[in-house]
């Protein structure tokens, strides 16, 4: 009897493509101000999950601390990572400022929420399980 073939969940197929594209993204708040609470991080994850779904991107992992967030995304080749990042940061900033205005204004001013820069790393070399474990171990604020 031949061994049963198990599909790899990290490999996806499109009409003319087979892919396994993962990126580790890190966004830092403006001036590294510690604006996030646990409730805000949970809401940020929800917002970013919705943005990812709009791009047909899977948000595999999310975590953060008081001044930054980590995301692990699985995205198709048709998605420009820079456009995804701009949307993630823009939409989340808009909603978080609207929903937590009084709290956010204590830490941030001038209409900014995120730093203008971000980290994006491809995750082809490290096993996804290792990166997931790293992101899971990031502590949330007290």
From TrEMBL:
GO terms assigned for molecular function: DNA binding; transposase activity
Domain Transposase IS200-like: 18-138
GO biological process, one term: DNA transposition
SUPFAM superfamilies: Transposase IS200-like
Name of the protein in its database record: IS200/IS605 family transposase
Annotated organism of origin: Spongiactinospora rosea
Cited InterPro entries: Transposase_17 (IPR002686), Transposase_17_sf (IPR036515)
